[in-house]
Amino acid sequence: MLTTENAELKAATKPSPLTFCVTVKDGAAARSFYAAALGAKEITAVVEDDGSGRLAHAHLVADDTAAGVQLMLGSDYGGEGMNATAAKPGTRSPAHAFVLVPDVDVAFERFAKAGAVVTERPRDMFYGMRIGKLVDPFGVGWSFGTPFKRGPRVGDVAADPVVSAERASFDM
Questions:
Q1: What is the pTM of this model?
Q2: What is the distance in angstroms between the CA of the first residue and the CA of the last residue of the chain?
Q3: pLDDT at 14
Q4: 17-21, 105-109, 118-122, 137-141: which has the minimum mean pLDDT?
Q5: From the candidate CATH numbers 3.40.640.10, 3.30.720.100, 1.10.1790.10, 3.30.530.20, the one assigned to the domain spanning 1-82
Q6: DSSP strand pairing (129-135 vs 20-24)
Q7: Architecture of domain 85-172 in CATH?
Q8: 10 — alpha (psi -120 to 50), left (phi > 0) or beta?
Q9: Which of 52, 58, 100, 157 is at 20 to 30 A from 40, Cα to Cα?
């Protein structure tokens, strides 16, 4: 196995309480896609040295998300417990990532430009979050969201104290 590591980035990256892990058919293509789509930097990569070029593992971090989202990915190894999703192009796998970002429109457009399929353009939701949804070329669903503040209106569900408390929990 050939391992590359960005020691400076690794030392500067705080452990994430939750890291999204993805297994795909073509790890090398996913590695390139996620770097472009998320603006992610690679901390570590492990590639098979048997001539196949198969990606055993990569650890990426996207610093421009609200919490420094981390992603680990690798190639499908068949019966070894690391199987790629069976989603068809344009459909989502059972796993879905939600990423809180400072500007949903910027993150959404970058992800779409990198090759993801748009399933729902960004729009303001009643609970105070602007959300857009896409499916990446590997069948993994992604939602990007940015909270916004808006005052309650007469007859608006936002006037409900429960909804207001939920909305407050999304404040960045």
A1: 0.74
A2: 41
A3: 80
A4: 17-21
A5: 3.30.720.100
A6: unpaired
A7: Roll (3.10)
A8: alpha
A9: 52
